[in-house]
Specification:
The complex is a heterodimer. By secondary structure, chain A is an alpha+beta fold. Chain A has a single domain, classed as Sufe protein. Chain: A (Alpha-Beta Complex). Chain A is 46% helix and 21% strand. In chain A, helix 2 crosses helix 3. The mean pLDDT of chain A is 88. Chain B is an alpha/beta fold. Chain B folds into 2 domains: 257 residues, 3-Layer(aba) Sandwich (Aspartate Aminotransferase, domain 2), CATH 3.40.640; 110 residues, Aspartate Aminotransferase, domain 1 (Alpha-Beta Complex), CATH 3.90.1150. Chain B has a 7-stranded mixed β-sheet, with helices on both faces. A 4-stranded antiparallel β-sheet of chain B has the order 11-12-15-14, covered by helices on one side. In chain B, a hairpin with a 4-residue loop joins strand 9 and strand 10. In chain B, helix 2 runs antiparallel to helix 10 and helix 4 packs parallel to helix 5. The two termini of chain B are 29 Å apart. The chains are: A alpha+beta, B alpha/beta.
Chain lengths: 127, 405
């Protein structure tokens, strides 16, 4: 994938002005993960109302792909139920980002999704 | 014009390649590749056991390389040269044998904050296992070791594990002075020197430095990826227990017991990377024909040029010593507002190979207060146009990420 497509304007906009950035005050659950390969870290805070994600926020530092990923997935997850999101796969995440990433950058792209799943389902995934 | 670049086939096959990651691994000259091919095609046989001519030839070839390596680093004797897989394995060998036996509960092991994980994690883990103390020497603001203030740390310590050249900061530690000072304060201390980033790039003399152990990798000095060297003083190797047990390292084996071979064979269990050893010999010949002083001078010139061009870039932070006398051809940096990974990605897509991440030095990055950095490193086959293309690449990164070029 060439630079043009990987770093298309939309992705860069999510990086520069991420959606849902910041810790929310009434969160019910949170989870955090680090990508040791490049030092990305993402923490997601979720406010649940029964099964539905009422509010969501994230904090973190990292590369454009990991931060854009966090911005995009938190935006997507807002208002959805835990049940709806169980089926959301890694492939879906990459489609949402709209890019094909190399094996090395995959971890960056999928970091936020992994954190979100930890949050919602409490499964300690391998970082 | 770089007269050596044409010796490296990868640049003929990839004319647009700008390879600035030699600190990770080096490119290979044709003579090294030829030597390996020649071995496999003409005298491939196992070593030290066969009696037929090609086995004799292979055995002699390996022992000749041992002598060559000894001469290259000025070891007293070829028996002080042990062939291992790489620097990491060499360090682990010392940790598992010498250190494990000699370091007791309550003893102190000293290392530094600028170490590569291979010269940090083994000591950390050993200290945990033995309930010994791990002391970590800090750096100054410009990336030098704070050795003077650390006198108390060295005083009662049993072991010092230290790097010659930092793979992140590029700092060349004044090892001769450091070891002299350390031994004056603490005559009983044993010193291991990580020379992975120094032996490929400058003349290293183990007797002059007076280190007890020295380690380096073949693949960082134009040889293959399965060969590394542990140098150890004769008296120490004699006392050390073996590392791996098996064939080649024994004298006699019976059901009840085994006697072991003398060093170096005591530490070389199993079939070694024969082709790798031969490649190391060929690499030493090649570097010898260029001259290590020439290698160092070439890199220093490139590094000075690189530093001056990089300093022109707005928003760049360069880590390590500012002055070229005290640094090797490794330059780590960050660009405001852009993660190191994204810098490397954009440059990679342009055919410019740099590294990004923490370069196997997480404690150092934490100490510097950064999650990651990008790194360029030079070797004999680099030229000024590589630096120019790299700088153009950085300008493109800045454009994409919206900063002022």
């Amino acid at each position: 994938m060439d630079t043009q497509t990987l770093y298309r304007e939309e992705l860069l906009e999510h990086y520069r002005n991420p959606q849902n950035f910041g810790k929310i005050s009434n969160f019910s659950v949170s989870a955090k993960q680090k990508n040791p390969f490049c030092g990305d870290d993402v923490e997601i805070f979720v406010q649940l109302e029964k099964d539905r994600i009422k509010n969501i926020g994230f904090e973190g530092r990292g590369c454009a792909i990991s931060m854009a990923g966090a911005s995009i997935i938190t935006e997507f997850a807002k208002g959805k139920t835990k049940k709806e999101l169980t089926k959301f796969s890694e492939k879906d995440m990459l489609n949402l980002l709209g890019i094909a990433v190399s094996q090395t950058r995959k971890k960056c792209a999928l970091l936020a999704l992994s954190v979100l799943k930890d949050c919602l389902y409490g499964i300690k995934s391998k970082s | 014009m770089n007269t050596w670049k044409k010796d490296f086939p990868i640049f003929q096959k990839n004319p647009k390649l700008v390879y600035l990651d030699s600190a990770a691994t080096s490119q290979k000259p044709k003579v090294v590749l030829n030597a390996m091919q020649y071995y496999y095609e003409n005298y491939n046989a196992n070593v030290r056991r066969g009696l037929y001519p090609i086995a004799e030839k292979a055995t002699t070839a390996v022992e000749d390389v041992r002598k060559k390596v000894a001469k290259f680093i000025n070891a007293k004797d070829p028996s002080e040269i042990i062939f291992v897989r790489n620097t990491t394995e060499a360090i682990n060998l010392v940790a598992y044998t010498f250190a494990s036996h000699n370091i007791k509960r309550g003893d102190s092991i000293v290392t530094t904050i600028m170490e590569h994980h291979s010269n940090f994690v083994p000591w950390q883990q050993l200290a945990k296992m033995k309930k010994s103390k791990l002391k970590v020497l800090d750096i100054t603001a410009d990336g030098f070791l704070n050795i003077n203030d650390s006198r108390f740390k060295i005083q009662d310590s049993r072991f010092l594990a230290i790097t010659h050249v930092s793979n992140v900061l590029g700092t060349i530690n004044p090892i001769k002075e450091i070891i002299k000072q350390v031994r004056a304060v603490n005559p009983q201390i044993t010193v291991l020197l990580d020379a992975a980033q120094s032996v490929p790039h400058m003349k290293v003399d183990v007797q002059d430095l007076d280190c007890d152990f020295l380690v380096f990798s073949g693949h960082k000095m134009m040889a293959g990826t399965g060969i590394g060297v542990l140098y150890g003083k004769k008296e120490l190797l004699k006392q050390m227990r073996p590392f791996l047990y098996g064939g080649e390292m024994i004298r006699e084996v019976s059901i009840e017991s085994t006697t072991f071979a003398d060093p170096p064979y005591k530490f070389e269990a199993g079939t070694p990377d024969i082709a790798g050893i031969i490649s190391l010999g060929a690499a030493i010949d090649y570097l010898g024909s260029v001259g290590m002083n020439t290698v160092q001078k070439h890199e220093r010139q490139l590094m000075a040029y690189g530093l001056s061009r990089m300093e022109e870039i707005d928003g760049i932070t360069i880590y390590g010593p500012k002055d070229v006398e005290h640094r090797s051809g490794v330059i780590s940096f960050n660009l405001d507002g852009v993660h190191a990974h994204d810098v490397a990605q954009v440059l990679g897509d342009m055919g410019i190979c740099i590294r990004s991440g923490h370069h196997c030095a997480m404690p150092l990055h934490k100490r510097l207060g950064i999650p990651a950095s990008a790194r360029v490193s030079f070797y004999l086959y680099n030229e000024e146009s590589d630096v120019d293309r790299f700088v153009e690449g950085i300008k493109k990164v800045k454009k994409i990420f919206g900063s002022k070029v």
